[in-house]
Amino acid sequence: MMEARINVPAKAARNEPFEVRLQIRHAMETGYRTDDTGKAIPRNVVRNVTCRYNGDVVFAAQLSSGIAANPYLRFFVTARSSGELVFEWVDDAGVRVTERAPVIVA
Amino acid sequence: MLRSLALVAACVAAIAAHGQQRPIATDALRSGLAYVGADVRAMQADDLANPGFLWVQRGEALFTENCASCHRDAASMRGVAARYPAYDASSSSVLDIEARIDQCRTQRQRKPAFGRESDDLLALATFVTHQSRGMPINVSIDGPARESFARGEAFYRQRHGQMNLACTNCHDQNYGKRLYTETMSQGHGSAFPAYRLEWQALGSLQRRLRACLFGVRAEMPRPGAPELTDVELYLAWRANGLPVESPGVRR
Questions:
Q1: What is the pTM (predicted TM-score) of this model?
Q2: Cα A100 from Cα B10, distance rounded (Å)
Q3: Does B49 sit within 8 Å of A25, measured CB to CB?
Q4: B195 to chain A, minimum CA–CA distance in Å?
Q5: Closest residue in chain A to residue B199, using alpha carbons only
Q6: Where are the domains of chain B?
Q7: Using N-to-C axis directions, what is the helix angle for B226-238 and B145-157, rounded to 10°?
Q8: Was domain B21-250 assigned CATH 1.10.760.10?
Q9: Could you tell me which of B244, B248, B250, B195 has the C-alpha nearest to residue B79?
């Protein structure tokens, strides 16, 4: 199960940057480890994370096996009008997750 | 002579008052947080950065789904974990919070147990323990819990493994000193279930105890083994008064 914690302020000021925090629950298996029988555990890391605001990409990241488990991302977004942040990420196993967070511009 | 007699009398009085003398006095108790670096402290201090909250969030969903029909809301769990491990009359044994949750699940709900160290049990235990955050640990070792407590204390003072070390050698006699890059803590479990950076995951106090036994090259009791619960009870009593921190962050 892949879950996430997303933190966006309840209200954002127009044209003022606000902080977005995203923490994805993911083991970020490096592919370098072996199980108890000596068999390699296949790599499974979150590959691409994108964040769109009203359709526009406002943040994108490519993660790799060097990133610790449960990746934690902080970035800033500036909003001109109210809308919705859409987060999307996909891991090596092909699991794709989409999460949404509304933003109200006051 | 008179002074030392008075001291002995005072000690005897203290033992009588508490039933048992504490290895570390209440005002000298320090959470493990006092012995980690500023980066780890910062991670725990910020709930949005603390990865342990991923388990709290999942635990909340599980609680709502599985437990809320009897236990109503999370507020009803406030203070519960601070009293665990506790004696349970129905099984005539001491149970830690994980065992208590799984007991409720198998006996009251007639559902299969989550199982020790399973993500779901860890999440529920963390959620329930988190409701007591900031409250002082307050376990009872009176009555039938006494036997388990005595076994736990004996285990704590017994030397283990190829390193021939007892818990007390580090955590009572040498806390605050360095062991290579680590500063030895007083060995309290108040942060658990906690997110350990070494594990890259959240784990139980029992897992931490097993890791410590592995470190001194001793035989590790299986998860859920009664001797681990005994030690958990002894540790909780030893930390009585320290605030619950779960989900803590540790190296």
A1: 0.91
A2: 63
A3: no
A4: 11
A5: A69
A6: 21-250
A7: 90
A8: yes
A9: B244
DSSP annotation of B80:
T
The shortest C-alpha distance from B59 to chain A (Å) reads 12
Q: Which tens digits make up the pLDDT trace of B95-129?
A: 999 999 999 999 999 999 999 999 999 999 999 99
Residue A51 lies in a domain: yes
Residue A97 lies in a domain: no
The mean per-residue pLDDT over the stretch A79-86 comes to: 94
Q: Stretch B137-153: mean pLDDT, rounded?
A: 96
Which among B54, B197, B201 has CB closest to A5? Answer: B54
- Do the chains contact at A72 and B49, CB–CB below 8 Å? yes
Q: Does the pLDDT value for residue A59 go beyond 90?
A: yes
Give chain A's domain count: 1
Residue of chain A nearest B43, judged by CA positions: A72
Please indicate, yes or no, if residue A38 is contained in any of the structural domains.
yes
Query: Nearest chain B Cα to A67, which residue?
Result: B200
Q: Span B191-203, mean pLDDT? A: 97
For residue B98, CA distances in Å to A30, B5, B103, B111 come to: 30, 46, 9, 15
Question: pLDDT value at position B12?
Answer: 46
For this structure, is B104 an active site residue? no
- In chain B, the DSSP E strands lie at 86-88, 93-95, 178-179, 182-183, 194-196, 201-203, 248-250
Q: Which domain holds residue A55?
A: 4-83
Which chain A residues contact residue B49 at CB under 8 A?
21, 23, 72
Q: Which of B67, B167, B170, B212 is catalytic?
A: B212
Cis before A71? omega within 30 = no
pLDDT at B3: 56
Distance CA B102, CA B108 (A): 10
Instruction: Give mean pLDDT, residues B53-72.
Output: 95
In-domain check, residue A44: yes
User: For residue A2, what pLDDT is reported?
Assistant: 56
3-state class (DSSP) for residue A73 = strand
Given a cut of 80, whether residue B138 has pLDDT beyond it is yes
